[in-house]
Amino acid sequence: MRPDLEIISKWIRPNSRVLDLGCGDGSLLKYLRESRKTSGYGLEINPENLVKCLRAGINVIQTNLNTGLSQFNEHSFDFVVMTQTLQAINRPDKLIQEMLRVGNEGIVTFPNFGHWKTRFYLGFGGQMPVTRSLPCQWYDTPNIHLCTLKDFERHCADHNILILKRAVVNINHEQTLTTRLFPNLLGEIALYHFKRAQ
Amino acid sequence: MPDSIPENSVGIVKSQTLQFNTAIELDCGQVLNEYELVFETYGELNQNHSNAILICHALSSDHHVAGYYSMEDKKPGWWENYVGPGKPIDTNHFFVICCNNLGGCKGSTGPVSINPETGKLYGPDFPIVTVKDWVKSQKALSDKLKINKWFAIVGGSLGGMQVMQWAIDYPDLMYHAIVIAAAAKLSAQNIAFNEVARQAILSDPDFHQGRYYDHDTKPRRGLMLARMLGHITYLSDDSMRKKFGRDLREGKINYGFDVNFEVESYLRYQGASFVDRFDANTYLLMTKVLDYFDPASEYDGLISTAFKNTLAKFLVISFTSDWRFSPERSKEIVKGLLDCHRDVSYFEIKSHQGHDAFLMPIEDYMNVFSAYMETAATQKGLL
Fold first, then answer.
1. Backbone angles phi, psi at B55, to 5 degrees
2. How far does the CA of residue B328 sit from the closest CA of chain A (Å)?
3. Domains assigned to chain A
4. Closest by alpha carbon to B181, among B337, B348, B318?
5. pLDDT digits over A160-190, tens only?
6. What DSSP element (H or E) covers B317?
7. Chunked in runs of 10, what are the mean pLDDT values of chain B (383 residues)?
8. CA closest to B338 among chain A residues
9. N or C: less crowded end of chain B, CB within 10 Å?
10. What is the mean pLDDT of chain A?
């Protein structure tokens, strides 16, 4: 299991109902079902991934996340998870609100645009960054709403969202001393666990 | 005629008929004391009868799902693309059954059967049946065949409605419900199309209040019009453009009302050939079955309440170009299932063939269907 998914699974309580937005090949949900006895659904749009989800034996609903989560009722899930998808959404702010409408708690992961390499690329090279965690060119990237750890945390503070846990990892999804000490500079992927502040 | 039967076909098939002498009480209040169901089967039933799949047919199709009746047969069954060895409904592993529904005209008791009380054809006196009635009769068939629990019940369009009714009425008698290009109820627009089709038949002077058999005729023009209209709604604007465009039959406009465009010729052919193989009274009945289907009506009008007791795992499939049973209708089914936390997977297959897409070999559709069936069969230890 990828270390970042391992971290997420530790944050999810056993027997929870989980909705996975952009669930890919369904490996997280499959792992959660087996290790945490969770139930729920994956949402995905790519036909090849959809078939992989079926083969993994998970419930998957073909959905375009940009149209929202209107098919789900309020608080029908314990957790709504979205890994490496937030930055590709038309309106991430609205989707985060939707996550906290249909779920009690949210978990997101995204590439940190504050990482030193992207800063270096733009600051010194004067070009849009192309790195291991952001491998596409500016014109064909699906990542249209990139942010840094600071951006995300400010957004949460401004929108009444309480961050419960944070983990920052390198490209190999490992937590190291340096990602702990200087997360916004040395962390390549950020993981957040949050809920609506009372 | 096939020169040789393709290897991935179930091959030459024969239909069977069973007689039922236990009365069936219909939704309309009438009782059928006895009836017959004609059906076909493919594949082998395993020892513990755990590999049986019931296929429910749509408006104008029948129990002949796959295979050929003889080497002279022009066409295979209506779902040859999806049923056979190595196909999504793989007859190497599954035992497949489909019966012609009550009120049909292909061998099961219906308007063209003899009414035992009068000794004459039922004709218009055959009671109006419902999806629920059909499911009841299919349950009687499964009892006779000693199938205690279906591995899956599968259907497209009106067939998908029967699958949902099964899941609601007999929750513990099936593992998987596969609902393709269906709806939880018809929209007003859909009922309107059916009404025009019915009026075409009813207003044909040869209809004779449904007793056309006595006059040795049939409402050819009416039934033909009904089919032509239906056919348009099963295709999409895009598929008609691709198939016909504005191609002219004789290369030039003839300034008359005879066939000018290829699409006119096609529709007339489809309509005329349908008249030869289908009964007008059955057509009227089938459109009513569609109109009346609304399982939520018994549950405060909420489809999610209707689904509350279901136990089956659902696979719901729709097609982007289908406007007769649009993806929106399938999403209503899915929403109902999500509301009560049922197991469901949903796919919206990209296609240009309109409602007819559910019969067509489409790669994404094939992949999804096969993946679902194989995974389910593996989990059940059938593979």
1. -105, 130
2. 11
3. 3-196 (3.40.50.150)
4. B318
5. 999 999 999 988 878 888 888 899 998 999 9
6. strand B313-319
7. 84 97 97 97 97 97 97 95 98 98 98 95 97 98 98 98 98 98 97 98 98 97 97 95 93 91 95 96 98 97 97 98 98 98 98 97 98 97 90
8. A72
9. N
10. 94
Burial zone of A42 (CB within 10 Å; 0-12 exposed, 13-18 middle, 19+ buried): buried
Q: Which residue of A has its CA nearest to B342?
A: A40
In sequence order, the β-bridge partners of residue B346 are: A61, B316
Q: Which two tokens stand for residue A25?
A: 């090949």
**B328 Cβ under 8 Å from any chain A Cβ:** no
| % of chain A beyond a pLDDT of 70 | 99
User: Which helix (DSSP H) or strand (DSSP E) does residue B131 occupy?
Assistant: helix B131-144
C-alpha span between B318 and A63 (Å, rounded): 13
Q: Which domains does chain B have, with CATH numbers?
A: 16-185+297-379 (3.40.50.1820), 191-287 (1.10.1740.110)
pLDDT at B1: 54
Structure tokens at B102: 């009550």
Do residues A185 and A116 lie in contact, with contact meaning Cβ atoms separated by under 8 Å?
A: yes
Specify whether B330 is catalytic.
Answer: no
Facing residues of B52 across strands? B95
Q: Which two tokens stand for residue B219?
A: 């409402």
Give me the mean pLDDT over the A87-106 stretch: 97
Q: How far apart are CA B65 and CA B95, in angstroms?
A: 13
pLDDT band at A46, cuts 50/70/90?
A: very high
Sign of CA dihedral B80, B86, B89, B95: positive
* Residues on chain A bordering chain B, Cβ-to-Cβ distance under 8 angstroms: 17, 39, 41, 47, 50-51, 53-55, 57, 59-62, 71-73, 76
Q: How far apart are CA A189 and CA B121, in angstroms?
A: 75
